[in-house]
Task: inverse folding
């Protein structure tokens, strides 16, 4: 049986510092985020991305904008 693909949103940042600060900001905003290696779909960034459920992507983007940490790139990815 083939596993069902699970979609997620990955947010990439310019630096590791920004990625870790963004992770803290999302946690404070009640948005579940997991640090992952940057997927190729994000291009060449710092190497750390944040994985967020698509249902929470709007809340994540609002929280990141509010604290001045908008992602440099984002991509929806199917994880199987």
Result:
């Amino acid at each position: 049986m083939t596993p069902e693909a699970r979609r997620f949103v990955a947010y990439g940042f310019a630096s590791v510092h920004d990625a870790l600060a963004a992770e803290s900001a999302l946690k404070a905003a009640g948005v579940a985020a997991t640090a992952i290696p940057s997927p190729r779909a994000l291009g060449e960034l710092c190497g750390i991305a944040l994985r967020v459920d698509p249902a929470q992507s709007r809340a994540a983007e609002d929280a990141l904008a509010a604290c001045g940490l908008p992602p440099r790139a984002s991509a929806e990815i199917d994880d199987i």
In short: The CA atoms of residues 8 and 54 lie 5 Å apart. The mean pLDDT is 92.
